[in-house]
Design goal:
Oligomer: heterodimer
Low-confidence stretches of chain B: none
Helix content of chain B: under 10%
Distance between the termini of chain A: 31 Å
Order of helices and strands of chain B: EEEEEEEEEEE
Largest sheet of chain A: 7 strands, mixed
Radius of gyration of chain A: 13 Å
Radius of gyration of chain B: 14 Å
Helix content of chain A: under 10%
Number of strands of chain B: 11
Number of helices of chain A: 0
Number of helices of chain B: 0
Shape of chain A: globular
């Protein structure tokens, strides 16, 4: 158990809909990362937040957005869903202290199926 | 942008045999390198990370990796494979420009199959 929790575990929705994925980082970790894992694209970094502020962006679509709240949990919002958005979405957290390299601890993921 | 290449999408070894999973990175400076393992229907677990303190890095579950700057490689090895090692293995790199704190760039993964 990494200490990172993600809800829900599974999500099935229709095209055009909007969903919200939730992540709680390990206790004390200020940085949260979101990743997408699909058969086509592999594991891709989407976005990173640090202590409530966006810190880095990866291959995140404009239809997707995220935020990190004062209690440090994070939400990834996916809108106007398409079939190709079906994937595993992982959240990871890191403390970003004690210098690099910074270990990222991954949650169990949310499996999104768009029908 | 930095990248990693994992040679071999599938590797099959016999139980007790040497495991060798290959990873080459593309970077003008030594990057921050990691190996992660993913068991079926689970998240990723860190096996080991390159810290520049030593070129041979020991990780969990008997795995180790050797950083070779001249070959831009960070191959993962285990002397004797166990059935429980069957999983997907990912090599990853962290962008030097972000101080190692940015999102990771992953290789496509290698599926390790252990034959009894």
């Amino acid at each position: 158990d990494s200490g990172v929790t993600q809800t829900p575990k599974h999500l099935i929705t229709a095209t055009g809909q909007r969903v919200t994925l939730r992540c709680s980082p390990r206790s004390g970790d200020l940085s949260v990362y979101w990743y997408q894992q699909s058969l086509d694209q592999g594991l891709q970094f989407l976005i990173q937040y640090y202590n409530g502020e966006e810190r880095a962006k990866g291959n995140i679509l404009e239809r997707f957005s995220a935020q990190q709240f004062p209690d440090l949990h994070s939400e990834l919002n996916l809108s106007s869903l398409e079939l190709g958005d079906s994937a595993l979405y992982f959240c990871a957290s890191s403390s970003l202290d004690r210098g690099p390299p910074y270990e990222q601890y991954f949650g169990p993921g949310t499996r999104l199926t768009v029908t | 942008a930095q990248s990693v290449t994992q040679l071999g999408s599938h590797v099959s070894v016999s139980e007790g045999a040497l495991v060798l999973l290959r990873c080459n990175y593309s970077s003008s400076v030594p990057p921050y390198l990691f190996w992660y393992v993913q068991y079926p229907n689970q998240g990723l677990q860190l096996l080991l990370k390159y810290t520049s303190a030593a070129t041979l890095v020991k990780g969990i579950n008997g795995f180790e990796a050797e950083f070779k700057k001249s070959e831009t490689s960070f191959h993962l090895t285990k002397p004797s494979a166990h059935m429980s090692d069957a999983a997907e293995y990912f090599c990853a790199v962290s962008d030097w420009g972000g101080g190692g704190a940015d999102g990771l760039t992953f290789g496509k993964g290698t599926h390790l199959i252990i034959q009894p």
